[in-house]
Specification:
oxidoreductase; NAD; oxidoreductase activity; 9 helices; 16% strand; NAD(P)-bd_dom_sf
């Protein structure tokens, strides 16, 4: 069944750029929103509305008449708590509360491995382990997962929380296990939208990697079956990599470099993320 209206926050971001086109085909109207002035050429059925998720009135206006929200809008990095509070904490509350007031059926949320980033990679963790955030960024993901659970249990508003590991080009040894390809990202979000009943659900956003450090079997009902495998990059990546340090939390823990960051501080250069966002 095709949705009447779907809202995508964070539409100007790298992941949002790959989601816009497929989401526009799943609904009569896709409302893409971000804090930027423009997101380029729009797809058929898509319109852009500039808005700040930290401002309730702006979120409330955009969600009127929406069937579902794909919420990817946030600061995507570690920052001091005061900087994260509006976009990453208050922004999530605004989405859920405005969505509830408008009768939104479901929120699909870009959570993160950083909600459980302090677990060792040698533990094959599933979707029901307790939160162990590695940063204020990860803490915001824990908050929103708990928010989603509460709105389901108290108000019957569904949500799917996608604990994305690393949706970026494979440029380092960690990504051999954590990679989520853009095609698999699109499949993951699509299944979170078109699965008839989800309640409150958590699923890891990771491709079909031989070295994946997480277990998705308790989310199998979503029908997410990733097709890509980072092992195709292993020989080249490992040939250029330095020897792993087993005492380095950035190597040993699920959160990677985030697990080694001081709270409120970040060095994203360690992630070697390529900005290959899709152009329109």
């Amino acid at each position: 069944m095709k949705l009447k209206k779907l809202v995508l926050t964070g539409a100007a971001g790298r992941l949002g750029s790959y989601l816009r086109e497929p989401l526009s085909k799943m609904c009569d109207e896709l409302v893409s929103t971000d804090i930027v002035d423009d997101i380029g050429t729009l797809y058929p059925g898509e319109r852009f509305v500039q808005a700040d998720v930290a401002k309730f009135d702006e979120v409330h206006a955009i969600l009127e008449g929406a069937d579902m929200v794909v919420h990817f809008g946030a600061i995507v990095d570690e920052r001091p708590f005061e900087e994260m509070l509006g976009p990453n904490f208050v922004g999530s509350y605004n989405i859920w509360e405005a969505g509830f007031q408008h009768g939104v059926k479901r929120v699909v949320y870009a959570s993160s491995i950083h909600a459980v980033g302090m677990y060792p990679k040698t533990e094959f963790i599933d979707t029901e382990v307790a939160h162990r955030p590695d940063t204020f960024y990860g803490l915001a993901k824990c908050f929103t997962e708990d928010l989603g659970r509460m709105y389901w249990e108290k108000r019957q508003m569904e949500s799917v929380h996608l604990r994305i590991l690393s949706a970026a080009q494979v440029t380092n040894p960690r990504a051999l296990g954590s990679w989520l390809s853009y095609d698999d990202l699109i499949q993951l979000v699509s299944r979170a939208i078109d699965t008839p009943v989800v309640g409150f659900s958590v699923v890891y956003g990771v491709s079909n990697n031989d070295r994946a450090p997480v277990d998705n079997h308790k989310a199998s009902f979503l029908g997410y079956r990733p097709k890509d495998n980072a092992e195709q990059f292993a020989e080249a990546i490992l040939a250029e990599a330095d020897a792993a340090d087993p005492t380095d939390p950035g190597t040993m823990l699920q959160g990677g470099p985030f697990a080694a960051f001081e709270l409120g501080q970040s060095d994203m250069s360690l992630m070697k993320i390529v900005d290959d966002r899709k152009k329109t």
